[in-house]
Amino acid sequence: MKIIIFSWFYFLISLFIAHSESNNEEQIKELNKYWTEVSRTVREGDFKGYKATCHKEGVLVSGVNNSSYPLSDALARWKKDFDATKEGRFKADVKFRFSQRINDSTTAHETGIFLYSGNKLNEKPKKDYIHFQALLVKKNGQWKIIMEYQKSKASEAEWNKLKPIS
Q: Which tens digit of pLDDT belongs to each residue from 84-102?
């Protein structure tokens, strides 16, 4: 009798794990699309598109500058760089790699490194590797960043240890 109960328990747990992994894979695909969109908007200088990836009450935390402030303030400061990129006076790109991804169907906490590179025309790109954490929420079917914590500088070696998103 104990074997039958144990077998059913194991079977139910296996189903739950398989279902959870399947849901997690789907959430990771959605989140990868989100980060790909963020990269596209930076690369193309699409300020409106970038702003659409942010929650209206988002917060930016900078461990490098020991500060915290509304993401809307950062967006206002970054707009000139987006405009310069869109006009072809500046080239920008951002890529993401992750060391930990925790999520469910409406929330996500992502930990990793982003690589931001930018340069004026005819200049060598400046690369910044930054350890970051992001807290996202899914509202009306769209992921939005509600907190971005730019924790500290990272190295290229640390970046290379992480797998690119697919």
A: 999 999 999 999 999 999 9
15 Cβ contact list (under 8 Å, min separation 6) = none
Amino acid residing at 152: S
Secondary structure tally for the chain: helices H, strands E: 4, 6
> Please, which residues bridge with residue 100 across strands?
111
Tokens of 9: 């328990």
The amino acid at residue 116 is Y
Tell me which residue of 101, 107, 79, 104 sits closest to 92, measured CA to CA: 79
Structural tokens at position 6: 């144990």
Residues 54-87 as b/e (b if ≥16 CB within 10 A, e otherwise) read: bbeebbbbbbeeeeeeebbebbeebeebbebbee
Buried b (16+ CB within 10 A) or exposed e, 4-43: eeeeeeeeeeeeeeeeeeeeeeebbebbbebbebbbebbe
**Residue the block writes with tokens 């988002």:** 58
Q: What is the pLDDT of residues 123-164, one digit of tens each?
A: 898 999 999 999 999 999 999 999 999 999 999 999 999 999
